[in-house]
Amino acid sequence: MTQVKKSGVPARQEIPQEFKWDLESVYATDEEWERDFAAVKELAEKIKGYSGRLGASAGTLLECLKLRDEIMVLGSQVIVFANLRRDEDTSNAKHQGMADRAGSLGVVLNTAVSFIEPELLGLEDGVVSGFLKEEPGLDEYRHYLDNVLRQKPHTLSPREEQLLAMAGELDDAPYNIFSMLNNADMRFPEIRDEEGEKVELSHGRYIKFMQSPDRRVRREAYEAMYTTYGNIKNTLATSLNSKIKGGMFFARARNFASAREAALFTDNIPVSVYDNVVDTINANLEPLHRYVSLKKRVLGLEKIAMHDIYAPLVSEVKMEVPFAKAREMVLAALAPLGEEYVRDASKAFTEGWIDVYENKGKRSGAYSWGSYSTKPFMLLNYDDTLNDASTLAHELGHSMHSYYSKTNLPPSTAQYPIFLAEVASTLNEALLNDYLLKTTEDKQKRLYIINEYLETIRGTVYRQTLFAEFEKEIYARSEAGQSLTNEDFSNLWLELNKKYYGPEMEVDDLIGLEWARIPHFYYNFYVYKYVTGFAAATCLAQNVLAGDEEATKRYLQFLKSGGSDYPLNILKTAGVDMTEPKPLVTTLEVFSKLLAELEELL
Fold first, then answer.
1. In this structure, is residue 582 part of a structural domain?
2. Which residue among 120, 155, 190 closes a domain?
3. What is the pairing mode between strands 304-305 and 354-357?
4. Could you identify which of 16, 242, 351, 521 might form a hypothetical disulfide with 174, taking C-beta atoms 3.0 to 4.6 angstroms apart as the criterion?
């Protein structure tokens, strides 16, 4: 494929079949897809006949839930196929049309089954537990039913629920305003690149400029970025305040003590887990301060500033990794997970799970996606770099999680929650990093690999915890009746950056505006999941790499557990207790150990 790529981006038909995903295993023809599209719409009509009848008998409830599974399995298959066909070549009008229709079908299916949960919540206490005792077939739905019924104290009357649903659209407004300002209306000035040429700053180019070895370029990009945000800081403070007020409104309406408790309730996570993340990372900031100090020394700076934080400690090492080598490397790195895992992971390469190379019209980026009844497909745009090999390991982690979950569980519990989603992918990356360090002797390559991993931990654990602490504090202040201005947001952001990056970092006023460009603050307490997922994966990886056979067995069981229990319980069974500091401390010990090697090598 390297030869093909050298002559430009190939058309879809020029890509050899062995490097394409096997969508024909889902539907051999588009006509087969059309038949299932029509069939699932009929099933959606059929399930409406159960509305108002779920309390009639245990048998009726079981029939309805089985039919719901059938709808969701077939519907997902139809939707996934159309989207993957579109993504392999977005210029194909027919497949674009199929994907659009699939999107509309998703709305139809969700609407058709939307009566089930409100109706279950409306049943008298004891009815569902009675049905579970009476009908053994309902046993596979025990966790699903428990998860629905725990919402009862936070569920209102049908009319009140209707009003909250109508108000939901208003709650989207702050993010929509932020998004339009941020992505459509905002114009950045020009800066001078490394050659002195004028180039317009953009969101996409910002990190590239911040990683420039030329300090002037970094400083100009940094100043241009935050000066631009400074021009609309009052507007963005108002939109963020509105989001906070919305979160408080919905939390109070549903009888939660706080917006944070309401947001974490979805995954059945107590707020103490969130606090544990913030408190534990705060107690372990010293390694980050050491990292800043090392960066200052290696970059030869008298004073290190916020625009230096992304500056590379070592120049990028060109490590060409053709796909065949990446396959060999990744499977070798995953060997500590045992023969069963490696054998099953090999299927990804031999059974058409992966769409490997870029072609004209192909969607950019990478993802893992499939349905209960399909292979766990992976889209890549592989370009022979070490980063691409790491992406392969990452997406293979997701696909293996999906593969084991659906192979071992019924549709009702096979889907794993977002809280667990990044564990399998991050663990694979950790194993690949360990393998690379064990098999790489070249000093520059080792430096590069270690620096990349340290940057990943800094960005995922330290930086996201800073975000999580900021979000916790702004909601707490607002819930205490304090009105928040852009100065309040900026002052808090400055304080946190000073604390996290330590005494050697010069924290200037401009960084105080960074909160204004972070979209995650419109996602309701989402960022802490990046930290918990990374820490859980790192802790599990350390156990596996230590040769602990029981730990490896427990991890494979984790992959096979899908969403069959609440996330904290599934992780605890795997050997990680996210209510305790240990997984986070273990992660920062890995950071410290790698940092010590870097300090020695530089």
1. yes
2. 155
3. unpaired
4. 242
